[in-house]
Amino acid sequence: MGALSFSRSRKPLGQLPVAHFGTRAGAAGLIINVDELVVESAEKVSPSEKHEYLTKVVTSRGIGWGIRVRGAIPQSVRDSTFLQQLIVPRRSGDAGVSETHNRLLNRPLSSLLRREKYLAVPKTISNQRNYLAVSSYDPEILPLDSLLVIDADSGTTFG
């Protein structure tokens, strides 16, 4: 009688959406969790183009605001004194993300947003908790990399 063996499968058995991490704030050129006063000031700089540099973001700690300070933002916003106050001057010896070599910085911020509702699960969970916080978010809120994102939330995915 021959030996029966089973191989490991790395693909889901059903047609469930695949989970992936959200966008890294530094790679997208975002400063996150800016306060409401900053948001009001930013909206005054260029209200018609604000969706390209100002967005709601969600992290494992909740919803806040993010403002883009580098990359594909309108020139009028980039040159504003308001934004210049937020940008930290980079020294030549700084290690980090280069604007010319980062594909996320050269894309409009709106292109990083999801196209439909999604589920967000924290990447790390405290061992002090007796529950798992899973939330569903609208597509206009940008998930950051502290979350595991499951696209196309139909309401039954988590169940």
List the helices and strands and how they pair.
Layout: E1 19-21, E2 30-32, H1 36-45, E3 54-59, E4 62-68, H2 75-78, H3 81-86, E5 118-122, E6 135-137, E7 141-143, E8 147-150
Parallel strand pairs: 3-7
Antiparallel strand pairs: 1-8, 2-4, 3-4, 5-6, 5-8
Question: What does the model show?
Answer:
A hairpin with a 2-residue loop joins strand 3 and strand 4 (62-68). The N and C termini lie far apart (42 Å). The protein is built from 3 helices and 8 strands; from the N terminus they run ββαββααββββ. The chain is elongated. Helix content is 13%, strand content 21%.
Distance between the termini: 42 Å
Q: Could you tell me the number of beta strands?
A: 8
Tell me which oligomeric state these chains represent. Answer: single chain
Low-confidence segments, given as residue ranges, are none
**Main sheet?**
4 strands, antiparallel
Number of H/I helices = 3
The secondary structure category is: alpha+beta
Percent helix: 10-25%
Shape summary: elongated
Strand percentage lies at 15-25%
The whole-number mean of residue pLDDT values reads 79
Order of helices and strands: EEHEEHHEEEE
Strand order of the largest sheet: 1-8-5-6
Report the radius of gyration as a whole number of Å: 20 Å
Q: How would you concisely characterize the structure shown here?
A:
The protein is an alpha+beta fold and 159 residues long. It has three helices and eight strands, in the order ββαββααββββ. The strands form two sheets. A four-stranded antiparallel beta sheet has the order 1-8-5-6, with no helix packed on it. The chain has a four-stranded mixed beta sheet with strand order 2-4-3-7.
